[in-house]
Every structure is written in structure tokens, then in C-alpha cells.
Amino acid sequence: MGDSAPRVTRAAAAGLLLLGAALLSGCQTDAGSDMMKVDRAQGSDQNIASLTSVISANPNDPEGYNVRGSAYGRAGEFRRALADFNRALELNPRFYQAYANRALVERNMGDQASALKDYNAALQINPRYDVAYIGRGNLYRQAGRLDQAFADFNQAIQNETTDPRAYHNRGLIYQARKQHNQAIEDFSTAISLSSTSPEPYNGRGISYLALGDDDNAFSDFNTAINLNGNIAESWANQALVYERRGDKAKAARSYSHALQLDPKYEPARAGLARVKGGA
């Protein structure tokens, strides 16, 4: 964790490493889901019905299919989303946004090869399209191809993207490489671009912990909880700070709450066992 980190017990250090690994794997899922985080308004039956009316009035306009496909994607209706993106691309084979949107659906359906092909097609048409760089970067990161992922996030940032996901995801790679100062800088930029998402606060907090800055880490984990109190990772991260401070009672409560939210969240289970003397 570096020379500046304070001395901690082996159990707590192991807990930090476990939590860091869980953070990276968890945020891969969250950050990688992009458009597919369920948006009840945009994916609602009412909104889809309205978009269908627009398509009926303009059946040869590819934009209508692209927008409705995105709404289907947010609602989790991936096959209908694919059909709409396919139609949009039949009408306009150079519709790079539809390629990137279709790639995201394919990623969510587990068809990574098709997703990569579509991201490449989007970037071939528009080499400055930040959404496609970020999407392809997440695809590479989930496959463990960190150098390629890093290059894509870098390219999006060099293209002056204002999308916080580029900074957040690059921060995760810096963190995986133990370059925590750079990770903190990227997480902070992501927060400045969108302060309502808990993920970069959790990410930054983990890097603060790795540098021995428990106070700033604790503040970030608490902010993550305030933004969304239903994420097990945030409560387990908070618990780890309590554990490092020697407050086992509060640590146990936070670990227990994390397990209530996600009974399979192993860092919380291991942490609870430590503070209760079971490890």
C-alpha cells in the first residue's frame, strides 16, 4: 500500500485488498452497464408507446428506431432493442450512434464479439465518438485487456469528453495498477462532472485507504451511502474504516447491513467474521 500507509493488522490489510478487488469487479459491472441501468421513465410503457407513435408517423426515419431501441434497452427488452437498432442501420448504414447502442445491447446479452465489431464500426465512421471509446474500453476492461481499455479511455479524454465514465473507468485501471494518486485525480474529475453517482466516491475512497488517508476515505464512503443507501459495497467500505479505527461494534453493524443488502457479498462476510473474532 506504499510507505505512507499506517500500520494495520494483516486481517485489515487483507480486508482492504478484498474490498479493492470487489470494488473493481463491482464497478466493472456498474460502469459497464452504461445505458442499460434501468431508467423507469425512459423505459416505461408510456414512453415506448409514444415513441412507437412517432415511428408510425415517420417509418423511414432511423432516429425514431434508435431512440426507441434505447428505451427498450433501458427496460431490459434487449431483443426488441436489437430489432430497432437493426432497422435504424438498414435505413442509415452510417448511423454510428446506432452501432454503439447496438453494441451495448449485445454486451448486455453476452455477445462480446458482436459488441466489439459494432464499436469498431462506430469508430470507423466517427473516430472522435467518445461513447464508443468508453463502451469499447469497458468491453476490454471486463475481458482483462487493461492496456487496450486504458488507451480507449485516454482517447475519449483526449477528445475532450465530458462523460464522467471515461475518468471513472480510467481511475479503476490506475487503481488496479496501484497508481492511487492518479486514480484519485480521475475519480475526482468524474465526481466534478456528475456528483450524484456513488461509484466514483467508492473508488476514490478505496484509493484514499490505500494511501493511508482514512478520514477522506470515510467521508467518501459516507457520501456514497447518502447518495444510494442500497449498495452493499458502500457499507462494507465504511465498515472497513471503522475496523481500521478499532471500532468493532460499528464495523460489525455496517458489515451486517451490507450482508442484508447482498448476502453473497464476500468482503462483508469476511469483514464481519474478522470483527467478531472468527478469522
TrEMBL record:
Pfam family name, one: TPR_1
Keyword Transmembrane: no
Signal peptide: 1-31
Stored InterPro entries: TPR-like_helical_dom_sf, TPR_2, TPR_rpt, Ycf3
Protein name per Swiss-Prot or TrEMBL: GlcNAc transferase
Alphabetical UniProt keywords: Repeat, Signal, TPR repeat, Transferase
TPR repeats: 62-95, 96-129, 130-163, 164-197, 198-231, 232-265
Molecular-function GO terms, alphabetical: transferase activity
